[in-house]
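batch_manifest entry 22 of 60
target: Putative transposase
source organism: Caballeronia novacaledonica
requested by: lab member K.T.
priority: normal
notes from requester: please return tokens only, no post-processing; we will run our own comparison against the previous entry in this batch. if the run fails, retry once and flag.
--- input ---
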Amino acid sequence: MPKTKSDDDSPPEGGGGSQENWRGEKRSNDTHESSTDTQARLFRKSRGTGALLCYMGHVLTDNRHGLVVNAQVTQANGTAERDAAAEMLADAARFAGTTITVGADKNYDTAGFVATCRENNVTPHVAQNDARAVTLPRFHVQQIMQRSI
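--- output ---
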């Protein structure tokens, strides 16, 4: 629903559930907000999908047994996945009392995430965010292993 600047609580013309045509117009968190939850944010997961008003859910699992170790819900933004992962890994490392390891995809291949992991006694094994990685023979094995996650 588009944001309105008035303090009037009456529904917009056409009722509260009217379908408006936004074809060709830019959508952003400055122009849209949820009518039921003003903290939800527009987020697009990939290039082929549309932006939705939502939150993001994050789950940290044990690689060996698939058990959930930690879970969080955050506001949707461009760094929410890395930020939540770093926070959950720091909690897990404190609880473990020893160095732990983490495997992550190329979205986590940033200097900030890797540095945060190392500061918190976590050894990161992150896929490189590099186009030439596709040509390496281990890339295909890595893709097969990720399907099990």
